[in-house]
Design a protein that fits this description.
Blueprint: H1 4-11, H2 25-35, E1 47-53, E2 58-64, E3 67-74, H3 80-89, E4 100-108, E5 111-119, E6 124-125, H4 131-136, H5 138-151, H6 160-170, H7 173-176, H8 179-185, H9 189-206, E7 217-219, E8 228-231, E9 234-237, E10 244-246, H10 248-259, H11 265-278, H12 286-295, H13 297-319, H14 323-343, H15 348-355
Antiparallel strand pairs: 1-2, 2-3, 3-5, 4-5, 6-8, 7-10, 8-9
Helix pairs in contact: 5-11, 9-13, 10-12, 10-13, 13-14
């Protein structure tokens, strides 16, 4: 087993798939009919193109006279889309994330749809960048994260417990799988094993959701490489559906885990140094911040593992994943593998099999 293969494959674009999917006519018509009932697209002539999908929502690129937009559609009553809309709306005009434009609930027959529309930003995702390009611009990226945390700092709000509840909800497959699919797979060996892994991870995490070290801020918490856009030397970040007002130290630990910075001492130090320098509200040394982030390293690894396991479970049974999606989960796992070997060693063999052994 050679986990370096995963990095090499990504860096060489071996599995980056540029998909241009033509929507079936019935889906295109449904999405068009839905959008024409929203406050933003009402009365517009629109064209709908497929963009992406996951277990929470489908996303589409919409063309109309106004311009080009990204629309996400969900039937999830948990309404992470609404949370993403509300959290990003406060960032409109700040160049941190594409501007949030509208959120609508549309009743269509007996069904209810939640629809979130934002500006569409052209850019290259970090997933598509050579590693060295991201490394060379690490200080610029740190400025962005520092600015997000500084701008949204809260003296009296702490959503740590809500964040933990969000993580638990992700493991409740009956909530986000179609009923007929869940009934089919709930007795499978993989479902039972995933439930066991989830339970052990959540038990470990419960003791690590500690009192925040720093004043809480709006934190992305799920900043994978495909949610970071790079254009003309600047970054923007997308998809705030899992954001919460929590300790920025934990958010940084999650960034380090998702982006593989724990294994890059130079870039990690540059990120921390620049973060402390650019955050105007933070009176803390780089060493002090580093200690606080390090204290969350195991918790961050467990959170990333929990998300990766359940995303892979969804992909396996529902989405029939493309190789680039599976590779991204494997990349995330390979970056935290050393840490989770210590925290949940009893699952190492099955986790390696899930994320690494199919190459």
């Amino acid at each position: 087993m050679n986990t370096n293969f995963i990095k090499k494959a990504i860096n060489n674009k071996a599995f980056v798939v540029k998909r241009s999917i033509t929507l079936p006519e019935f889906e295109s018509k449904l999405v068009t009919d839905l959008l024409l009932q929203t406050s933003f697209f009402k009365g517009q002539k629109i064209t709908v193109n497929y963009h992406d999908n996951n277990y929470e929502y489908d996303s589409y690129i919409i063309y109309c006279d106004k311009g080009k937009y990204l629309t996400k559609i969900s039937q999830d009553e948990g309404n992470n889309l609404l949370k993403g809309y509300e959290h990003t709306k406060q960032l409109n005009g700040k160049l941190i994330t594409p501007n949030s434009l509208s959120f609508d609930t549309v009743n269509f027959g007996d069904e209810k749809f939640f629809i979130f529309t934002s500006d569409f930003i052209h850019g290259t995702t970090v997933k598509e960048l050579p590693f060295e390009v991201f490394d060379e611009n690490i200080k610029t990226f740190s400025n962005l994260i520092s600015y997000l945390h500084e701008l949204t700092e809260s003296k009296d709000k702490d959503e740590t417990l809500l964040f933990f509840e969000d993580l638990k909800d992700m493991t409740k497959h009956s909530l986000w799988l179609p009923e007929e699919d869940f009934e089919t797979i709930k007795k499978s060996k993989l479902q039972q094993k995933v439930e066991e892994i989830n339970e052990d991870i959540l038990n470990k995490l419960s003791s690590r959701m500690v009192k925040p070290h720093l004043p809480c801020s709006l934190c992305h918490t799920n900043l994978t490489r495909n949610k970071i856009l790079f254009k003309k030397g600047f970054f923007q970040i997308t998809c705030f559906e899992h954001s919460r007002v929590i300790d920025p130290s934990l958010d940084i630990a999650l960034v380090f885990g998702y982006l593989g910075l724990n294994k890059k001492k130079l870039q990690k130090n540059q990120f921390l140094e620049q973060y402390v320098t650019s955050h105007r509200n933070l009176d803390i040394s780089k060493k002090n911040l580093e200690d606080k982030v390090e204290s969350y390293k195991d918790a961050a690894s467990l959170i990333i593992l929990l998300r990766s396991v359940n995303r892979e479970f969804y992909n396996t049974f529902i989405d029939k994943p493309t190789s680039d999606k599976r590779l991204e989960n494997s990349f995330a796992y390979s970056e935290i593998r050393d840490s989770i070997t210590k925290t949940v060693p009893q699952h190492k063999q099955i986790l390696d099999k899930i994320f690494l052994n199919y190459y």
